[in-house]
Amino acid sequence: MRACSFAALLLLVAACDQVALPGAAPPPLRPGLSETVGQALCQLGFTSIPLRELRSGHHLVSVTLNGQAATFVVDTGANVTVLDAALAEKFGLTPRLGLRGAAVGLGGSTGARQWNLQELRIGPVAARQKTIVTTDLSQVTGALSRLSDEPVSGIVGQDVMKAQQAVIDVAGPTLHLLQPGSGPKPPGACDGADAKA
Q1: Under the phi-then-psi rule, with left for phi > 0, alpha for psi from -120 to 50, and beta for the rest, what region is 168?
Q2: Biggest alpha carbon distance in the chain?
Q3: What whole-number distance in Å separates Cα of residue 156 and Cα of residue 26?
Q4: Which helix (H) or strand (E) holds 46?
Q5: Average pLDDT value for residue range 90-111
Q6: CA-based Rg of the chain, rounded to a whole angstrom?
Q7: CB < 8 Å & 24+ apart, contacts of 185-191
Q8: Which helix (H) or strand (E) holds 85?
Q9: How many CB atoms are located within 10 Å of the residue 49 CB?
Q10: What is the pLDDT of residue 97?
Q11: Alpha helix ranges (H) inside the chain
Q12: How far apart are CA 3 and CA 144, in angstroms?
């Protein structure tokens, strides 16, 4: 776990001077105005979202998919955000015609399909995604659902994390995401940021 924490720290350091969205000037750093990682990121325009850590080490986050609440696992190794295929109808997804493919993971490969997405929120942050992939995640979601005592429906992948310039505080455990259109916050606006340094 120390290697993961060290990697998260390196990611945080790298993100501190490159948190601007493409085409925008980076927000100014204000050294000495932050006592915690959460405060520093809040001042740069990030929103802190609590994660729930399972005894397996996986981190769960609350999402809203097309207006319905769900729980997803945060997976930095997944290149896209994925919903268990059995739940596509429940969340009111509409298929993108002709877009099928394959998903490859530790369990082998399986069919995958891309769907149109009306809304995806990670905590209160509106993700920029307009599509989501579905595949059979029953082995993953089943195991994590048993560990968490709540249904796990999918995976938040790198597509969302990259678009929202995610910073993960494993020790927090907290996920920090940059809200589209947000900018630096004035001094004092982040005094209650609860993430730990």
Answers
A1: beta
A2: 53
A3: 26
A4: strand 46-50
A5: 63
A6: 17
A7: 185/42, 185/43, 185/44, 185/45, 187/30, 187/33, 187/43, 189/42, 189/43, 190/34, 190/38, 190/39, 190/42, 190/43, 191/39
A8: none
A9: 21
A10: 58
A11: 2-16, 37-43, 138-148, 158-163
A12: 23
pLDDT tier for residue 30 given thresholds of 50, 70 and 90:
low
Q: What pLDDT is attached to residue 111?
A: 72
pTM recorded for the entire structure: 0.75
For residue range 44-63, list pLDDT tens digits in order: 889 999 999 999 999 999 99
Mean pLDDT calculated for residue range 129-140: 91
Cα–Cα distance for residue pair 42/147, rounded to 1 Å: 31
At residue 145, the 3 state secondary structure works out as: helix
Q: What is the DSSP letter of 3?
A: H
Which residues lie closer than 8 Å to 64 by C-beta, 6 or more apart?
A: 70, 119, 120, 121
Question: The tokens 């099928």 sit on which residue?
Answer: 100
